[in-house]
Amino acid sequence: MFETPKPVLGNDKPAVVKSWDEWSPLKHVIVGVADGGMIPPGEPALDAKVPEDSDMKGQWGPRSQESADKANEQLDNFAKVLESRGVRVDRPTPIDFSAPVSTPDWENPSSFGCMPPRDVILTVGKEMLEATMSYRCRFFEYLCYRPLMQKYFEDDPHFRHTAAPKPRMSDASYRPDYLSDQIGVEKRLKWTAEKFFVTTEEEPMFDAADVLRFGKDLIVQHGFTTNLKGIDWLRRHYPDHRVTAVNFPGDPYPIHIDATFTPIRPGLIINNPERRLPDEQREFFHRNDWEIVDAARPAHNTPPPLCYSSVWLSMNVLMVDEKTVCVEASEVNQMEQFDKMGLEVLPIPFRDAYAFGGALHCATTDVFREGDLVDYFPKG
């Protein structure tokens, strides 16, 4: 019988929710856990994401206890490093991810996990928004964060807890073209350049990790996990923000923006050199005096075993403030680039956690950052 653990709270002081951007001083954060993580079963959205030569093809089931223990050791260390810098850390409450899940439209043999809270929860100002999600295996993942949301609701009278409408995720929401095991990278690149993704426009779908916060601007990646209807839903939900869609034609597996386009501080972004922002979209940043530079090359040629993220998790970093950045400890090239930019680099061992959902930005979501709402793009 699966026993639901109690949520792990950073301390007993009342929580205050507020975060407008990716770089203001971080004071309160959620860090994920690897308990019960699964290799998810095949489904339309997931199958399109897993590379054809991946060791995850055709596999699903519980990840080993040894791998979970190693991942949790690194996640716990990450939490301790943040706490040593004065950041309060909360942790989600895992559910039984091995249990089958279903709706009237579909059945799935299991869920996924709760290591990457960035995928599920989007914090914009005083609101924490539960994303629609686009994988069936992640349909109920929001439940892992409900104990924390309830605590923040009780503590902070100005906190808004919002859930985007859950999509039905019927077969109509996914393109059958992506069901083949042998599409090939060349065709994938052609399709992504044409903005032909696995998700259709049947209903709004978005993952929170496709959204970057720049004060009054939200930059949203259109790709596998976020469709145009999802971006339109965000525009309607945040009428006082500018919501700008971007895409990266060089990525054959475009999910989640934070290993492709990473703001460091006001006026500076690093961009994956294999997935450069198109010139016409780049102009929006340049006319507002933002510099976009190529990220350093990853230190590794392959991801860890049973990990469907790319080697570009090297640039999936967490800004503690404008002058301090957490980087995976083996990513020496990225650390050197940041050092030359004048940043204090905090090396965080994390490769054992990658397979459970990504790197340091993925493994966190903001609760509170100092700083107010600012317009960083006054020229529109």
UniProtKB/TrEMBL annotation:
UniProt-recorded name of the protein: Serine/threonine protein kinase
Record's keyword terms, sorted: Kinase, Serine/threonine-protein kinase, Transferase
Highest taxon listed in the record's lineage: Bacteria
GO molecular function, one term: protein serine/threonine kinase activity
Signal peptide: none
PANTHER family reported for this sequence: GLYCINE AMIDINOTRANSFERASE, MITOCHONDRIAL (PTHR10488)
Classification via InterPro entries: AmidinoTrfase (IPR033195)
Region annotation Disordered: where it falls in the sequence: 41-69
Species for this entry: Pseudahrensia aquimaris
Keyword Kinase (UniProt): yes
Family indicated by similarity: Belongs to the amidinotransferase family.
